[in-house]
Amino acid sequence: MNVGVFRRKWYVVASVVLYALVLAVFGRCDSKPTEVPEDEPTTGSVTQAAYVGSAACRSCHAEVYDAYQHTGKGRSFHAPHPLDRFENFAAPPVYDPTLDFHYRAFWRHDTLYVAEFRTKGRADTTHYREERVAYVIGSGNQTRSYLREVNGYLYEMPLTWYAQRGLWDLSPGYEAGHNTRFDRLVGEACLSCHGSGQAYVEHSLNRFTEVGGAIGCETCHGPGSTHVQYWEEGPRATKGQRDSTIVNPKYLTATLQFDVCRQCHLEGVVVAQPGRDPQAYRPGQPLADYQEIFLPVTDATTEYGFASHAERLQQSPCFLGSGKVLTCTPCHAPHQPLATQVSYNATCQSCHPAPDACTEHAEARLAVDNNCVRCHMPKRGPGDIPHVATTDHKIGIHRDSLSFATTAAASPMQLKSFTSDHPSERNQALAYLNYYEQFDQNPAYLAQVATFVQALERDAQIKLAYLQQQPLAPSWQALTPSQVDDPATCFYVAEMRLRQGLPSLDWHRRAVNLAPDHLEYRFALASAYETAGQPEAAAATYLEVLQRQPEHQASLLNLGYLRLQTEQWEEALALFDQALALYPDYRLAYENRVQALLQLGELPEALRTLDRLIKQYPDDARYPALRTQVREALSAN
Q1: Cβ count within 10 A of residue 367
Q2: What is the per-residue pLDDT across 507-560, written as a single tens digit (0 to 9) for each?
Q3: Are residues 519 and 441 in the same domain?
Q4: Which contiguous run of DSSP H or E holds residue 119?
Q5: Cys-Cys with 266: which of 308, 310, 352, 414 at CB 3.0–4.6 Å?
Q6: What is the domain count for the chain?
């Protein structure tokens, strides 16, 4: 009853950067924006600089630094602290009817936990699991979610505090049968927008050697080591003069200013430009040099995601009428909490000064206190985050209802680039490929990719063939592992060779050597060892996975299965019980547990396990038949 190669969806935390977290820039704009900066910025020294952390800024910028700590950005990511709690921990548990789990958060002394439990009747708890909260993600202006850590691997927890409505509920994306419990991966892209100072282990998906803290100064100003060194050596400029050792976004062109915000507030399908790492972007550089961002286009003009501020603004008549140079800072002061900012009407009137600029009837205007934003930027609930209302940044005349309703879009949706007017065929193909992999496994998206396949590099073509269940092309069969430096491509080739009955171990080993902390590549190598008839190597490799992540579900099962094969009944049973304590509905673990119990002669416990399987899976005829055999054996004894 081996599980084979386990396929888990690699989730990342949705980019729930709070509405207040507009990653904007220094200064405010009191006049109409222009694409031409006051001075051409110099960013060369900044791109060569290293990150030093926000604390290094305080000695010279104490007032700005201290004010910033009260913004949503300044509180976006941190370790939990008993003095920083405003959630209602006395509220009733949250219930997931699909999986039949209850959830609650609680403090034990100075440590925060999230508990998962299942009850039978009013008093009988049939499952209980609790996990320590390592990090809080979200300022609490809108939401607070929670992360756990296992040997540097980060995972989101299933419970979120929704501050606007003052309630607990399942985390965004966990509803409607999509509860991944404590196993949703938190990757590099998540932390780079929710925080700063993290050190990601390359190719690991979700492992970090350092996690860092909240969104910091260098997110918008670029790495600061050159700037700090420059000023530590003595004053070199007077106040008000340009300082080329740091990026001050107010000196950037409007497009480059906008890019500083769009690095996180344009949430979509990211396509890396050829030879570029999207995470290598630095403020002051064109974002499009590093990545192209695509979003699905639908007819539902009111539908938008949580971190869609730039997408919606780019569709606004105000943005288009400005020559596409309207930025975020005319409305948002990045170093001040949103609550302290004055009415936005003055900003609107800087471009619409005439008394009759608003054509709405006086009665309607008075109903909203003559507030431009109330009508032209209504609050709605985004399609990807429940219990939250955010400002729609598509400035315009909105005749539709101000309450958001999810609209079913035609499938497949078309993807549009929001960072380029003329995306290349390569980038369009990769956008559909990534959208299929990350969001919607509709084969029609892969068909879209196939129309541009010749524009793709070899590794992307191999990935497409893997996802389409295609055989290896003859030219790819001739490849050797040393000719490929991308671990994902090595994994795809290995799995395709495995499907075709070809030797795969060298390719699996190459993937693991290139990405030693990628758990699924190492698990796949262990499974391939089993297929190749090398159980000892398989067991050793499963143990390597469990040394890194002791809760790896399929490794617990498969290692237990191998222990059954070598008649190590007690060790096998312990592994199955460990898996079931974490995953109480793990059918294969129950089946293998029965086998271990029978071998150990623990027939009554084997019967109880079979009764559970029969109750949960009444249509499986194997279980009643085996139960009859066990009962006969008990009677014979």
Answers
A1: 13
A2: 999 999 999 999 999 999 999 999 999 999 999 999 999 999 999 999 999 999
A3: no
A4: strand 111-120
A5: 310
A6: 3
Please answer whether residues 138 and 591 qualify as being in contact, where contact means their C-beta atoms are separated by less than 8 angstroms: no
Amino acid code (one letter) for 577: D
Cβ(224)–Cβ(217) below 8 Å: yes
Q: Is residue 327 included in any domain, yes or no?
A: no
Q: Could you tell me the two tokens for 183?
A: 């196993």
In degrees to the nearest 10, what's the CA dihedral of 398, 403, 404, 406?
-120
**DSSP label at residue 34:** -
**Whether 137 contacts 194, CB under 8 Å:** yes
Between 265 and 208, where is the model more confident?
208
Q: Which residues, including other chains, have CB under 8 Å from residue 266's CB and lie 6 or more apart?
A: 293, 295, 307, 308, 309, 310, 311, 418, 419
Residue 494 and residue 626 in one domain: yes
Mean pLDDT of 146-151: 98
Whether residue 592 contacts residue 569, with contact meaning beta carbons closer than 8 Å, is answered with no
Write down the pLDDT at residue 45.
63
What digits encode the pLDDT tens for the residues 480-492?
A: 999 999 999 999 9
Cis peptide before 516 (omega within 30 of 0): no
In angstroms, the CA 342 to CA 591 distance is 64
Largest CA distance in the chain: 97
> Residue 27: is its pLDDT beyond 50?
no
d(CA 43, CA 190): 26
Location of structure tokens 């925060």: 112
* Residue 174, token pair as written in the block: 């966990």
DSSP for 576-596 reads HHHHHHH-TT-HHHHHHHHHH
Q: Are residues 431 and 470 in the same domain?
A: no
Nearest to 535 by CA among 579, 571, 565: 565
Contact 398, 392 (CB under 8 A): yes
For 445, the domain range is 424-455
User: 590-608, pLDDT tens digit by residue?
Assistant: 999 999 999 999 999 999 9
Task: State the pLDDT at residue 26.
Answer: 32
Q: CA–CA separation, 97 vs 327, rounded Å? A: 44
To which H or E segment does residue 378 belong? Answer: none
Measure the CA–CA gap between 357 and 375, rounded to whole angstroms.
14
- Provide mean pLDDT across the span 20-26: 32
User: 70 and 234 in contact (C-beta within 8 Å)?
Assistant: no
In the predicted structure, residue 351 carries a pLDDT above the cut 70: yes
Q: Which residues contact 101 (CB under 8 A, 6 or more apart)?
A: 95, 116, 117, 118, 127, 158, 179, 181
Q: Look at residue 398 and tell me if it is in a domain.
A: no
Residues 6+ apart with CB under 8 A from 581: 129
* Predicted model pTM: 0.87
Confidence at residue 296, expressed as pLDDT on a 0 to 100 scale = 86
| Residue 503 phi, psi (nearest 5) | -60, 135
**Measured in whole angstroms, how far is the alpha carbon of residue 181 from the centre of its chain?**
15
Task: Give phi and psi for 617, each to the nearest 5.
Answer: -130, 70
The tokens for 529 are 């060892």
Residue 487 inside a domain? The answer is yes
Q: What pLDDT does residue 331 have?
A: 80
Joined together, the tokens standing for residue 80 give 């939990």
Q: How far apart (Å, rounded) are the C-alpha atoms in residues 53 and 23?
A: 17
485 and 616 part of one domain:
yes
Q: Which residue has the higher pLDDT, 413 or 542?
A: 542
